[in-house]
Design goal:
With 315 residues, the protein is of the alpha/beta class. It contains 11 helices and 13 strands. The protein has a domain of 196 residues: Rossmann fold (3-Layer(aba) Sandwich), CATH 3.40.50.720. The chain is 40% helix and 17% strand. The strands form 4 sheets. A 7-stranded parallel β-sheet has the order 3-2-1-4-5-6-11, with helices on both faces. Strands 7-10 form a two-stranded parallel ribbon.
């Protein structure tokens, strides 16, 4: 079936904004579901995009919002649990409910964002819940055309990883680093978005799971050093052992804004590294961290000032 209208859950976030922009450029009619319409102000001017306020945890509201869609992309995810949102509720139950609603409405095409190392046996609840969400979707594979993407950490303008550490590096005299030898294979947000959009009408991607990782593997320590190099700032890095890593995370859980949790540390017990090459089906040569990071981390540039203004305006 020709896909014309696409509904995106989580379309106002970091990855979602890039996905929605590319869908708009490709000429799709895009409906972005968001809990607060004001959080998607930066999407209002895209000509083919409509922003719909919807509580995706409400089946009736979600069903009404999905009516008329030809495909659904689910990008909703959380890094930290709260009273309102648990890993199971967001990563497992939501995809399971979404699959049932799509089948009821006759929407066959469903694209899901998961995570590298999402396994039932994974050490963290975050990764196990992602695996449970995948399983809930694939159980309906005969009735749905499902594609699942498993990225490593995603970097780019507005990300919550490199930008967070850039801010901390500027403020702190030294960096106490949990799990300094944990390994990551960062992938650029624009490469991730391109893959998702390219998969929509490619029937060869139906029923497939794709790992998305960049061209280079870094330890956590190397990543922080790379951020320092871009900023032109040097700070001592004190690597923490396992016990101190968990102790630091426990203390951070008590802060009003969570920077890290013990479950995040458990996720780092397994390397966020792919054993597979970047999927050739999408025809993309993944961009390296070093090629992009200087463009958005240097605040003194005119573009950096514009991005700060846009960030404030979009809240």
């Amino acid at each position: 079936m020709q896909v014309k209208k696409i509904c995106v859950l989580g379309g106002s976030g970091f990855v979602g904004s890039s996905v929605v922009a590319k869908l708009d450029q490709a000429g799709y009619a895009v409906s972005v579901l968001t809990r607060r319409r004001d959080s998607a102000k930066h999407l209002f001017l895209l000509p083919n995009v409509s922003v719909v306020e919807c509580d995706v945890q409400d089946d009736q509201a979600l069903t009404a919002a999905l009516k008329g869609a030809d495909a659904v992309i689910n990008l909703i995810g959380i890094l930290h649990q709260s009273r309102r949102a648990s890993f199971d509720k967001v990563h497992h139950q939501l995809p399971a409910r979404l699959a049932k609603i799509c089948m009821t409405l006759g929407i066959r095409r469903l694209v899901q964002m998961s995570s590298l190392q999402a396994l039932k046996s994974a050490p963290s609840e975050y990764l196990r819940s992602k695996a449970a969400g995948e399983a809930a979707l694939l159980a309906n594979a005969p009735k749905l055309d499902i594609t699942i993407f498993r990225p490593s950490i995603i970097f780019g303008r507005g990300d919550s990883f490199t930008n967070l550490f850039a801010s901390l590096i500027k403020l702190l005299p030294l960096v106490l680093l949990a799990k300094p030898d944990a390994r990551f294979q960062p992938v650029w947000v624009e490469d991730v978005a391109s893959c998702l959009v390219a998969s929509i009408q490619n029937t060869a991607t139906y029923g497939q799971i794709y790992e998305l990782a960049g061209p280079r593997v870094y330890t956590f320590r190397q990543l922080v050093k790379q951020i320092m190099a871009v900023l032109g700032v040097q700070r001592p890095i004190v690597g923490l052992g396992t016990a101190l890593s968990y102790a630091q995370a426990f203390m951070m859980e008590l802060l009003p804004v969570k920077l890290m949790s013990r479950d995040n540390v458990r996720s780092m017990e397994v390397d966020s590294v792919s054993a597979e090459p970047f999927p050739v089906i999408f025809g993309i040569e993944p961009v390296a961290l070093e090629a992009v990071m200087p463009e958005y981390l240097v605040d003194s540039t005119q573009r950096g000032a514009y991005d700060r203004y846009r960030s404030v305006a979009a809240r």
